[in-house]
Amino acid sequence: MVKLYNTVIPKRRILNIEDVREEYNKCNLYGKLEIKAWLFHSKSRIENNHPPFSYDKYCNTVQKQDILDQVKSGIIDCDDLGGEEEVIKYLLEIIK
Fold first, then answer.
1. Which range, of 17-21, 39-43, 81-85, averages the lowest pLDDT?
2. In the chain, where do the E strands start and end?
């Protein structure tokens, strides 16, 4: 099992981008940010002819600061998460 903060996703279901998208609505804010960051990572790797990391591997290597940097640079769209300002405030609180 993979623990996404308040959500548990069976590993066998995280096979590709579509599987993760299906689980998105079950996650809390940080879980949604991780998914968005992983989706960006996966799309970028595929566009550059490289296989993406698995979701588990990506989440084990990405840091909260990396997520914050992606939000600040506009890589992660936060419109459905309360807006960029709110997400940045949330991330700064949990990074402390």
1. 17-21
2. 2-4, 7-9
How many angstroms from the chain centroid is the CA of residue 53?
Answer: 13
The counts of H helices and E strands in the chain are 5, 2
pTM for this predicted structure: 0.78
> How does DSSP classify residue 2?
E
C-beta separation of 90 from 29 below 8 A = yes
List the chain domain ranges: 2-95
The crossing angle, in degrees rounded to 10, of helices 64-72 and 29-47 is 70
Report helix, strand or coil for 91.
helix
- Phi first, then psi: give them for residue 10, nearest 5 degrees: -60, 135
Amino acid sitting at position 9: I
Euclidean distance between CA atoms 77 and 96, whole angstroms: 23
| 30 vs 25: CA distance, rounded Å | 12
Q: Angle CA(47)–CA(24)–CA(27) in degrees, nearest 5?
A: 135
